[in-house]
Amino acid sequence: MGEYCPSPQGLAALPSPSPETAVRPSYGSCDRRYVKQVFDNLHGSISLDPLALQFVDTEEFQRLRDLKQLGLTYLVYPGAVHTRFEHSLGVYSLAGKAINNLKTYQGEELGIDHVDMQTVKLAGLLHDIGHGPFSHLFEHEFLPRVDPGSSWSHEDMSVLLLDSIVDKHAIDIENDYLKTIKSANEKHFLYDIVANGRNGIDVDKFDYIGRDCRACGLGCNFQYWRLTEGMRVMGDEICYPAKDYLSIHKLFSTRADLHRTVYTHAKVKAVELMLVDALIEANDYLGISLHAHDPEDFWKLDDTIIKSIETAPNNELKKAKEIIQRIRRRELYKFCNQYSVPKDKLEHFKNITAQDVVCSQKSSEVLLKEEDVAVSNVKIDLTRGKDNPLESIKFFKDFGCDEKFPITDDRVSHLLPAYNEDRIVRVYAKKPELVDVVSEAFENLQMRMYGEKTQVHETPKKKRIRSN
């Protein structure tokens, strides 16, 4: 991120008001004297207004610079080193563009004012401040193992951190506006712009899909601007022109492709499984999970926790250090194989565990233990599980029409998928010499569950030989 700075001569030419005469910009102010420009490699120039800057300049928000957007994915895709910091600025920018378009065309009808516009942008700016180290890994992989049954979420922590930031840094914002940033009780469409729980179309996805595709060197032909410019509020619900149906499907299919090829890449998951094991080993010593419930402590957690493990006293965290060193040496857990859950078994599928694999071992010279096996249960969907997200989206024929309606897949194309969810089970051997044994047990498990091997192919002989 780069900042546009005026020349020294320009600075000298501007009068500098003294603290006694300076007037603090009001909420929703657009005074350019107090606006800062930053340059983003995805969206170009982003203008940060005075209130946004008050949040950006806090240590809690600056922490996002030390949270990689894609966690450990950069070990497989070297370019994936972007952080939650630039993503948050990007969502802030896109939220501003979306609400500006709505105000231009429906501002009077919807009663959109400067406060609405600013709160939507701030919701975009602050939506991810509650993420833990390595982003989703902390929430979905680490915490469930050390605190089973926990309902912790980064969304809830974001709300707690927002209150903490306002109090700690004395940010000038009224309570009513603060409540709107957290959740819009009236004008619900304002909240849907950033995080749309109704149909999954929001500027958060617009940003991370484009940003992640670019960072990983993948093509992305989804054009978010078509949706931000075409969106229209009808009955407190954001609707889209019917002609953009396939563009919306492309949004969800691109997201699914990212999950399949990047987020759940077999080696990415191997690294994540190893790091989770290291964090669990270090949890009691560093109190990682305890920090997850107090915003005053939580904001101090970021990706540098790896350094905390490595620099612990010599007699502490020996096993965790060994795992980190294995990751650095690229001695990863060995991927044995995977299978896709048959579509007729999806409804009643339960996550496979290491115990399931170990219990499927029949006869071998080596007796497997649960700690020898790692299992990754992957779900890939279009953002609403087995349900088609497009069925919950409302469309309109043209801007002269006041009727909104859904569109069924069969009215558009017979090439669209009949199923909207994949469940993939991957198994890993934590020791290279166990690849053959784990692979055999995994195949036995498939035979016991489905009466056949559902994997795409058997573990290559070269891999088995190389691992022995």
Automatic annotation (TrEMBL):
InterPro entries: dGTPase-like (IPR050135), HD/PDEase_dom (IPR003607), HD_assoc_2 (IPR045509), HD_domain (IPR006674). Residues 1-26 are annotated as: Disordered. Residues 84-209 form the HD domain. Pfam families: HD (PF01966), HD_assoc_2 (PF19276). SMART domains: HDc. It comes from the Eukaryota. PANTHER family: DEOXYNUCLEOSIDE TRIPHOSPHATE TRIPHOSPHOHYDROLASE, DEOXYNUCLEOSIDE TRIPHOSPHATE TRIPHOSPHOHYDROLASE SAMHD1. This is HD domain-containing protein. It comes from Sorghum bicolor. The lineage of its organism: Eukaryota, Viridiplantae, Streptophyta, Embryophyta, Tracheophyta.
